[in-house]
């Protein structure tokens, strides 16, 4: 697994922690970095993913709601919800990463940490968002 893949995993775990505990991004990142090994060179990327995702939830969550047919955010498994949030953030705001890579990475996370159907679910939602909503953002 590459450094960026491990960084995405760390970001997912931090977002999950925040969703469960209500911790702020700064507190959650501090706790995560204290208790888990994350390469020093990867920490800025993890931080950017976590902070960027949480700062843009007002933009991200409505997109997920619109594309997750027959699902509400509240009904989704916490891990699936946070993989989708992370994936949408990265699709729209980390535009140096090709969309196929973003989606594949999100699907891999869903297969590792979600249910048997999580990979298909995440792939379907992110692919739909990518095809209909993707805009280049600075």
Number of helices: 7
Coarse structural class: mainly alpha
Strand content: under 5%
Helix and strand run: HHHHHHH
> Largest sheet at a glance?
none
Explained architecture:
It is globular and about 40 Å long. The model has no long low-confidence stretch (mean pLDDT 93). The N and C termini lie far apart (28 Å). It has a single domain, classed as NusB-like (N-utilizing Substance Protein B Homolog, Chain A), CATH 1.10.940. Helix 1 crosses helix 5 and helix 3 crosses helix 5. 36% of the residues are buried. The chain has seven helices and no strands.
Briefly summarize what is shown.
73% of the residues lie in helices and 0% in strands.
Describe the SSE topology.
Blueprint: H1 3-21, H2 25-35, H3 43-55, H4 57-67, H5 78-93, H6 99-113, H7 118-133
Helix pairs in contact: 1-2, 1-3, 1-5, 2-3, 3-5, 4-5, 5-6, 5-7, 6-7
